[in-house]
Hints:
Elements: H1 14-29, H2 36-43, H3 47-51, H4 57-79, H5 85-99, H6 101-107, H7 110-113, H8 119-136, H9 141-144, H10 148-165, H11 171-192
Amino acid sequence: MDTPVRRPYRHGNLPNAMRAAARAILDEGGPESVGLRETARRVGVSATAAYRHFASKEELLASVAAEGFRELTAEMEAALNGHEALKRIGLAYVEFALRKRGLFRLMFGPILVERAKYPVLNDASRAAIDLMRRAIGGLTEQQREDNAEILGAWGLVHGLSSLFIDDLIPEDRARALAEEILVHAQAARTENRPAA
Length: 196
C-alpha cells in the first residue's frame, strides 16, 4: 500500500490570507482574540511562517486596521457624489461600522493610539480623516487640522456608530435614525454657513 507523499503547504499570498483570517477572528471575538498562532492555524500554516510576515500580533492588527481604513476611505469617497456631503459621508461611515463591527472596533481601539509606530496604519488613518475634513469643505488645510465643525461632525458619526455597534440602539432602527440625525446636522450646517 502506497503512502501519499505530504508536501509542504505553499500559500499564494500569506499576508492577505492572514489578514482575512484575523478579520474573521475579530468578528467572532474582538481584537483580544486575534493571535498570530491562531491566525496561522486557521490559514493552515505554521506560526513560523506567520512570523516571516508579521513580527508580532500588533503588527498583524495594525496591517488589518490599515486595510480597514483604506476600505472606509473608499466607501466615503464613493458616497461623496452630489450634495449633502456631511449626510452622505456620515451614512457611509455608520454603514461601514454596522457591517464591519470587529474591524471598526480595532481601527478605533488602542492600536490607533500607537499608529505612528506603524507607517502603513498611520498613512491609511490619516487619509480617511483627511477625506472627512475635505468633505466638510471650504477650509484651508491648516484650518482643517483642528476645526471644531469637522471634529463635531466626526464626533457625531463616530458616536452614532459606536452606539449602534454596541447595541445601545437596536440595529433595525440604526440606519433610519442615523439618516434622520444627519439630515438635521446637514440642515443646521447649511443654515449657519455664511453667505458667499
